[in-house]
Amino acid sequence: MATGRRPGSYVCGVDAATDVIGGKWKVLILWALAVRPHRFGELRRELPGVTEKVLAGHLRELEAGGIVHREEYDEVPPRVAYSLTLKGVSLNTALEPLGAWGKRSVLGASAAAGEVREDDDVALIARGA
């Protein structure tokens, strides 16, 4: 498990924030949990390519940072669900402009050509309406 740096060792706020969301999968976990709570297997299926070990580690780190809440249900078979805390919701809100920048600046060429990707948020409007 990764160890966090002492708050005094950060250079700036961006340095501290990237320490929380560092890694390929953490931001994608946050986006998935913003839609609704997920069980571990659901998250794994939603993030093709992530290994169980990496997903479990990232979820533990996000939970330790107060970003993700892990809810254990007293059932047979055992059930665990992950959701965002208020701190996690505020982090996702802070990441929204970064996502908009990525769509505009990186995916902009395909968007300008009128191509709609599977993950684009597009309002459905009936023709002639």
What does this structure look like?
- The protein is globular and about 45 Å long.
- Helix 2 (26-35) crosses helix 5.
- The protein contains 6 helices and 3 strands; from the N terminus they run H-H-E-H-H-E-E-H-H.
- It has helices at 13-21, 26-35, 40-46, 52-64, 86-105, 108-112, and strands at 38-39, 68-73, 79-84.
- It is mainly alpha-helical and 129 residues long.
- Strand 2 and strand 3 (79-84) form a beta hairpin.
- Strands 1-3-2 form a 3-stranded antiparallel sheet.
- The model is unreliable at 122-129 (pLDDT under 50).
Strand content: 5-15%
| Mean pLDDT value | 83
What is the ordering of alpha helices and beta strands? Answer: HHEHHEEHH
Whole-Å distance between the termini?
54 Å
The portion of residues assigned to helices is: 40-55%
Overall form: globular
Question: Quick one: how many beta strands?
Answer: 3
Rg over alpha carbons: 17 Å
Give the uncertain stretches in residue-range form.
122-129
How many individual helices? 6
SS-based structural class? mainly alpha
Main sheet: strands, sense, barrel: 3 strands, antiparallel
Strand arrangement, major sheet: 1-3-2
